[in-house]
Amino acid sequence: MIRAVGLTFHYSKRPPIFQNFDWTVAQGQTWAIIGASGCGKSTLLYLLAGLRQPDAGQLLINDQPIQGPRPQTGLILQDYGLLPWATLRQNVTLGLDLRRFYGPDGRHAPIDGLPGNPEQRVTHWLERLGIAGVANQYPGQVSGGQRQRAAIARTLVLEPDLLLMDEPFASLDAPTRENLQSLILQLHTERPLTTVLVTHTIEEAMTIGEKILVLANRTNTTPLILDNPYAGQIPAVQDEGYTKLTARMRAELKETTA
Amino acid sequence: MKRLQLVWASLGLLAVWQLLAMIVQRDILPVPLAVLGAFFSEVGGELGGHFLASLWRVIASLLLSIALAAPAGLVLGQSRRLNAFFSPLVYILYPIPKVVLVSIVMLFLGINDLSKIVMIFLILFFQILVLVRDQAAAIRPELIYSVRSLGAGRRGLFKYVYLPASLPAILTAVRQSIGTAVAVLYIVELIATTRGLGYYIYLYGTTLYDYPKMYAGVVAMSLLGLGLYFAADWLHRKLCPWQFQTSEDAA
To answer: In this predicted complex, what is the ipTM?
Structure first.
């Protein structure tokens, strides 16, 4: 699904974050990307979202180079990115409005469009994410968890094949966070959506990612990938293997930030 | 502000006026009743015509300044480079009291409606420009990223993000500067014109010495300012409801 080949990227006047970096994500997998702040984990997500372009090398989705935001990629950010002047329902409809606005041009909206009645899809996702009751309120009136649910609904309404999340639950309290984590896991069992989640907490990486990419706080060349058999469990089972894996991750993170 | 509070405040002002008039006991300060009498008998005739002339000048300047300042503010707010280039200029021009330019503007544009409209325009333009620019610059990049990831290009961002984001800034700018705009309107209507409330007030105050009529003109001018202020406020509430809702309202 995703292939990075010789990916190289740097911000001006700083050492490269990625140099000749190869990485592959298979269809339907859930990945967690973990690393200390400044290691480039969000950068990798923005590259995947088509919001930044690599200096060299290629980043391919379904063997197509990413040339800009791709209509089938959903992006969810920590600060929700909701329009403050639109109700939750209007926010959830935004992607569909944009598709109507541009028409099926293949660049802003997929050529084939979306089946079904848009109103019904919006209602379906508002209900599925449990925010139908507050659909007519503005983002400023509802809780952080409800805002993030709206952001997720807004993305899923568009039937993406790739879901990118940048620390989506970092500013939520613990019960709300666990709630949304299990929602993501449930949604993943309902439809095999390829998911890449950026996080800075080991627990979240262990909960969500069946594969965990550990990024170093220096130039990343070869990816460090951990297989995580404990993904999909809330709260994750704590046994010897779990402890070992988290200890290893902790050691890697410590070592690469030193 | 509750409507009832406004009624009480107006009644209070009228009472103070009445009291002052009774203490002063001179022609130059008639009692409110005399002025309101003059106002209502004049408003259907001469005064109404002058009111409309003034109203047209303010509305025309308002529309002109919104039409030019809002897009300029949006462009400056979106482009860091352009803003870096123009902001020193705006910084210098913004605080200059534009009213000192009256004579210059009239020399260049002539003694007609255009020069008057341009004078008011100069005041509103900078207010709207600065507020819209700052509003557009304050839009968080995360919001832009999210909306772009949903498929928005430049046109989509403009329609769904920048335009609605600048609406409250425009209305706030209008509300904040309407007082100054009407003050400048008065000044430009003192000069070389026979139409407008400024002329009307001046004529009855210093030439014909008809004080109730002069005060009727003052009332009309106040109503013009107040009316525009209320209209901007009302539009703000109507068009930007999200700014007036709290989580308590929802509960």
So the answer is: 0.88
